[in-house]
């Protein structure tokens, strides 16, 4: 069930049976020569929507631009400053709690978002802790889950890609997007086959170290079939975890 495709009376009916919602959250940033700019937003969206369809979970709009400053030397990348992202997340949450939601499960697709999402949660809880007049009511609980850390998912990825998984533009995440959007697949020969690894500083330094955008990965291994397996494992785990969180 998607919020975007629902009417307000349907939301009324959903709120009568559940106060929990799933929000996919990601980033719009370069993902190497064959990866989609939307990869980090699309992965949690593809997984979240399937979980929503299978289990009747309400899935909100995707928060699809995040912390991508270090990818800015590649065209197409869009980034928010941390303060903007925190403010926007707080406004989304306050709008939802205004309607009666009490649990927001943020399904994240981008490692670079983690610190800012955690900071946003502190801001959301602040008003309740300090009893501020404009505090979120009823008290809100948020949960952050990175999709690649869902129970069982890493095992599937390791089996599918014993080498060349790397840490950015991974064959696993590219496979998930190819499964969701097979028409957007790109076949690109890569050299070296496995990209270099190393630390990340600013955007220019990133492009010098990792000229095609990948870190430690060989995403030419990505396939629709692999994506289907990863998504199946992730959907199963999301449904179980969301239900437990909603009931907590
Ligand atoms: Zn990514």
As laid out across the biggest beta sheet, the strand order is: 1-2-3
Which structural class do you get from the secondary structure elements? mainly alpha
Shape label: globular
Distance between the amino and carboxyl termini: 21 Å
| Secondary-structure element series | HEHHEHEHHHH
Output the radius of gyration.
18 Å
Let me know the average pLDDT: 96
Oligomer: single chain
Number of strands: 3
Biggest sheet descriptor: 3 strands, parallel
Helix content: 40-55%
Low-confidence stretches: none
How many helices does DSSP assign? 8
Relative strand content: 5-15%
Bound molecules: zinc ion
What does the model show?
This protein has a 3-stranded parallel β-sheet. The radius of gyration is 18 Å and the shape is globular. Strand 2, helix 4 (114-129) and strand 3 form a beta-alpha-beta unit. The chain has 8 helices and 3 strands; from the N terminus they run H-E-H-H-E-H-E-H-H-H-H. It is mainly alpha-helical and 248 residues long. The model has no long low-confidence stretch (mean pLDDT 96). It starts with 7 loop residues before the first helix and ends with a helix. It has helices at 8-17, 39-55, 82-98, 114-129, 153-160, 171-180, 203-209, 224-247; strands spanning 20-25, 103-108, 141-146.
